[in-house]
Amino acid sequence: MLMDYWIKKFGTDMKIGDNELIAPDAEMENSSILFRGKGNILFLAPGVHLNNVVIKFLGNNSVVYISKSKYPCAFQVNMFHDSVFYMGENNSINGKKAVFQLSEYKNIFIGADNMLSYGLTLRVADPHLIYSATTKERVNPSKSVYIGDHVWIGQNVNILKGVRIGSGSIIAGEAVLTKPVPSNTTFGGNPAKKLKEGVFWMRPSVHAFTSAHTEKWQRHDGDEFIFTNKNTYSFATIEKELTRLAHTQDKLTFLQHLPKDKNRFFMDVDVNKSQRKSGKSHFFNWGKK
């Protein structure tokens, strides 16, 4: 019989049944963690402050990796067997919790400096089975979801299995996203389609703007939020490594050594080209001699 372990507070490193919680200098507030199963690892980077967060390990051998954020970031993670949930640095989630559903050994990966509005739902499965009436073969396999850096996702967006979103993109409110999104591109609608390309966005909110603010922000000459194909590292490479690595500790070590380049998660307008492109070979050699 499986034992439920609910965590409301923690020390630095804890063994929870046959699971591990690694939390150097992390804090919890209005949050809870459930371990059910074995071989799971929760890693909270130094300085993480969980506020209004729920994390549920409902199976075995999964990894949750949460990085520090200077913004409010409320979410719920429900995951089963052999999956990875990764949350990069300085992501923000406005208001109502985002819900991330992981199953059938697939992954959800979210880069850094993303701005997510309320009502976001993200899943890697349909989740029920669909078969071809002709071949009797299953036709709806589960697929991982990857989001790059500095992506703005509007309110009540649904992101479905297999979606990849390149850095710098914008997903309009109420969108249902089923396709890959190139970098610095706006998608919207149900199902979502490309609305505009060659755009970038910034965090300042116009709600309280005066005419002076509007004038000030009419132009921005920097290119810090424009992403290019220099020093990229494909989502396909991450998926390949997370699938190849059998042990949760090896997956955690891999995540701790991800590249930091600005353009790491650039996706070309030719998204197939972006997904074929591999990272530099030395990223494959972390921890190897």
TrEMBL record:
Keyword Nuclease tagged:
no
GO function term, MF aspect, one:
transferase activity
- Keywords carried by this UniProt record: Repeat, Transferase
User: By what name is this protein known?
Assistant: Acetyltransferase
Q: Which InterPro entries match?
A: Hexapep, Hexapep_transf_CS, Hexapeptide_acetyltransf, Trimer_LpxA-like_sf
What PANTHER family does the entry give? Answer: LIPOPOLYSACCHARIDE BIOSYNTHESIS O-ACETYL TRANSFERASE WBBJ-RELATED (PTHR23416:SF78), SIALIC ACID SYNTHASE-RELATED (PTHR23416)
Which Gene3D superfamilies does its entry note?
A: Hexapeptide repeat proteins
The answer to whether the entry has keyword Repeat is yes
From which source organism is this entry? Weissella kandleri
The record's listing under SUPFAM superfamilies reads:
Trimeric LpxA-like enzymes (SSF51161)
